[in-house]
Amino acid sequence: MNRLNFKYAPKKKTYYVDGHETPETVAYRKKYILSYMKDELCCYRWIQLTEYKVSQLEQKDGEFDRRIGYSYQIDGNNMFEFHVDDHD
């Protein structure tokens, strides 16, 4: 441990806030957010529905097909996820 310059010390919890409002940081954050929002438009969008909601959609729209979505269970409930561009 000593050869690698490590030492035993009590673990301290820290919360980094120093410099979060400096002009450089604020400018970078604004630039980053604009870039992120632009890129977000290219991301896939998914909606999560219960089996009950999917059944309602199937009854309302005869062309709605649950097989297009991804099915899984959460706490014993059947759930479905659909990509928003898969349906009108």
Characteristics:
single chain, 88 residues, alpha+beta, 3-stranded antiparallel sheet, elongated
Molecular structure report:
There is one protein chain. 32% of the residues lie in helices and 19% in strands. By secondary structure, the protein is of the alpha+beta class. Strands 1-3-2 form a three-stranded antiparallel beta sheet. A hairpin with a 2-residue loop joins strand 2 (70-74) and strand 3 (77-83). The longest helix has 18 residues, at 23-40. The protein is elongated and about 70 Å long.
Structural class from helices and strands?
alpha+beta
**Stretches with pLDDT under 50, minimum 5 residues:** none
Distance between the termini: 62 Å
Mean pLDDT, as a whole number? 85
The DSSP helix count reads 2
> What is the beta-strand fraction?
15-25%
Order of helices and strands: HEHEE
Q: How would the global form be characterised?
A: elongated
Helix content: 25-40%
Q: Sheet bearing the most strands, described?
A: 3 strands, antiparallel
Q: For the largest beta sheet, what order do the strands appear in spatially?
A: 1-3-2
Radius of gyration in whole Å, from Cα?
A: 24 Å
Number of strands: 3
